[in-house]
């Protein structure tokens, strides 16, 4: 059975900051092979005991928020445990457990809020980054970009195909004009 430290040592030490957001088939396969069964178990309610400690909660959030995006890239299952991840994240943040983990990993407690298609969650993510992790300008930039997309569309258009949702004309134009990358470049230009 997978333990919290298995998840955290893999994510922090083996993958590390350079690999966290690059993705790619090699990483997707590695996550799927090592943690696919654990994710499946978590999706059916396993690993509740992990939620009784800061590091266990962080491992649960990574398992249910980050890993499915690798295991099920471009598939609706990539988002199927988002609600569980958000609940775990909010509970841990409410206990200030995010302050108990290294700064390099703390932002993963906030990622389920950034991945939410709810503007209230988006706003909370930004507030948390500003107050609890003020030195992480990169994550804050991406949080602001995610919030902007939710403000504009009320959802993430880049998920539409995977979720079988029809894109509006505005969403199609957004994707054609560079999508998320264009939003990031716009925010970067504004801060220069």
From TrEMBL:
Gene3D superfamilies: Tetratricopeptide repeat domain, TPR-like. InterPro entries: DUF924, TPR-like_helical_dom_sf. This is DUF924 domain-containing protein. It comes from the Bacteria. It holds the Pfam family DUF924. It comes from Roseisalinus antarcticus.
């Amino acid at each position: 059975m997978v333990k919290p430290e298995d998840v955290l040592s893999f994510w922090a030490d083996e993958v590390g900051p350079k690999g966290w957001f690059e993705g790619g088939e090699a990483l997707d396969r590695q996550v799927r092979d090592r943690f696919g069964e654990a994710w499946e178990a978590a999706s059916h309610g396993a690993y509740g005991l992990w939620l009784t400690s800061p590091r266990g909660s962080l491992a649960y959030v990574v398992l249910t928020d980050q890993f499915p995006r690798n295991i099920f890239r471009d598939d609706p299952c990539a988002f199927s445990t988002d609600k569980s991840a958000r609940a775990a994240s909010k509970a841990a943040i409410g206990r200030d457990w995010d302050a108990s983990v290294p700064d390099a990993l703390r932002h993963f407690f906030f990622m389920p809020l950034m991945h939410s298609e709810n503007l209230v969650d988006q706003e909370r993510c930004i507030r948390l980054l500003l107050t609890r992790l003020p030195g992480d300008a990169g994550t804050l930039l991406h949080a602001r970009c995610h919030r902007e997309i939710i403000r504009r569309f009320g959802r993430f258009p880049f998920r539409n195909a995977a979720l079988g949702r029809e894109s509006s004309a505005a969403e199609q134009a957004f994707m054609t004009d560079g999508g998320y990358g264009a939003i990031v470049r716009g925010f970067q230009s504004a801060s220069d």
